[in-house]
């Protein structure tokens, strides 16, 4: 049985100075591919769904598929809901078997963000041990239904982070440090590594209270990723890169074998493309052999 929540995986990662990849999926077959890749290199892994795919296929179907796949997996696997600002939907996903939830109230005032995050934390505590991620500051770009234009990006203040963590009792903190969802517009986006270090020292200086999450994995340089891990980043979210790999593989199939109408072969090509992305990230994050 290898069902896990994100926090358990991230505490181990923070202590061990590596990070765990959190890969966004839109279908069950992508889940299978990602878990297969993690198993092949013995790495813990977090599967994430944004709100749209969770609504399309239902949290209940994702929950059942996750339970079956994780129970039969040789590595620990968590299922997380990504960037949800709807408290009722967060609760539904907890009930459906998601082991981690990100309540994203980062566009709200600090007071409302604390209140909404705490509401989800309190609900979850009565239901088992799912872990809750909250966001402080705002991450730029577009992720599913959340869109933040560059002028509205606000980085996370380390002292506010302590207050946010203390008052919500959340499990994992996603502080805005200049990373963004989607494709970066510049070759060297300005990522505030020192800010993450300060947040890490303020929040987790004495003991690990809330492991730190880095959003906007796609397009970060290897050097930046390594520096972020060194200062406490323990979960890296990757979505856009997987979407590109998935659709590009479908296009490639259609171009090369389209007239054969063989969906199993097309599935396989897409799974292989997704696995390649996952292998790349697991190696970069240092999570191989940590399963
Ligand atoms: P990317 O789409 O930039 O990889 O970001 C993913 C993410 O942070 C999901 O929450």
Q: Could you explain the architecture of this structure?
A:
The chain is 49% helix and 18% strand. The chain has helices at residues 6-16, 28-40, 51-57, 59-71, 87-95, 110-125, 158-168, 193-204, 222-230, 240-257, 263-285, and strands spanning 20-25, 45-49, 77-84, 100-103, 131-136, 140-143, 146-148, 172-175, 180-181, 212-214, 233-238. It has an eight-stranded parallel sheet with strand order 8-5-4-3-2-1-11-10, sandwiched between helices. Strands 7-6-9 form a three-stranded mixed sheet, with no helix packed on it. The chain is built from eleven helices and eleven strands. The protein is of the alpha/beta class and 291 residues long. β4, α6 (110-125) and β5 (131-136) form a beta-alpha-beta unit. 1,3-dihydroxyacetonephosphate (13P) binds next to β3, β11 and α10.
- Please state the structural category: alpha/beta
* CATH-defined architecture: Alpha-Beta Barrel
Unreliably modeled segments? none
Strand percentage:
15-25%
CATH topology: TIM Barrel
> What is the CATH homologous superfamily assignment?
Aldolase class I
What is the element layout, followed by pairings?
Layout lengths: L5 H11 L3 E6 L2 H13 L4 E5 L1 H7 L1 H13 L5 E8 L2 H9 L4 E4 L6 H16 L5 E6 L3 E4 L2 E3 L9 H11 L3 E4 L4 E2 L11 H12 L7 E3 L7 H9 L2 E6 L1 H18 L5 H23 L6
Parallel strand pairs: 1-2, 1-11, 2-3, 3-4, 4-5, 5-8, 6-9, 10-11
Antiparallel strand pairs: 6-7
Helix pairs in contact: 2-4, 2-11, 5-6, 7-8, 10-11
The protein binds 1,3-dihydroxyacetonephosphate (13P).
1,3-dihydroxyacetonephosphate binds next to β3, β11 and α10.
């Amino acid at each position: 049985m290898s069902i896990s929540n994100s926090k358990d995986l991230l505490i181990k990662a923070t202590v061990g100075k590596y990070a765990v990849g959190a890969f966004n999926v839109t279908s069950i077959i992508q889940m299978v591919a990602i878990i297969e890749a993690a198993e092949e290199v013995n790495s813990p892994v977090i599967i994430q769904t944004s709100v749209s795919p969770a609504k399309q296929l239902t949290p209940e179907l994702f929950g059942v598929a996750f339970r079956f796949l994780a129970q039969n997996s040789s590595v620990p696997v968590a299922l997380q809901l990504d960037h949800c600002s709807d408290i009722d939907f967060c609760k539904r996903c907890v009930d459906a078997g998601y082991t981690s939830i990100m309540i994203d109230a980062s566009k709200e005032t600090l007071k409302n963000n604390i209140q909404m995050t705490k509401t989800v934390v309190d609900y979850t505590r009565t239901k088992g041990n799912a872990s809750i991620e909250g966001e402080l500051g705002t991450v730029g770009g577009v992720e599913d239904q959340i869109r933040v234009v560059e002028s509205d990006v606000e980085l996370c203040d380390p002292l506010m982070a302590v207050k946010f963590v203390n008052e919500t009792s959340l499990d994992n903190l996603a502080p805005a440090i200049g990373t963004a969802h989607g494709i970066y517009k510049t070759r060297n986006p300005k990522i505030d590594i020192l800010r993450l270090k300060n947040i890490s020292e303020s929040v987790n200086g004495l003991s690990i209270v809330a492991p730190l999450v880095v959003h906007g994995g796609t397009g970060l340089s290897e050097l930046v990723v390594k520096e972020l891990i060194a200062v406490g980043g323990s979960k890296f979210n990757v979505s856009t890169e997987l979407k590109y790999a998935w659709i590009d593989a479908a296009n490639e199939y259609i171009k090369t074998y389209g007239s054969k109408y063989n969906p199993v072969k097309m599935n396989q090509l897409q799974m292989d493309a997704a696995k390649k992305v996952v292998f790349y990230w697991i190696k970069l994050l240092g999570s191989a052999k940590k399963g």
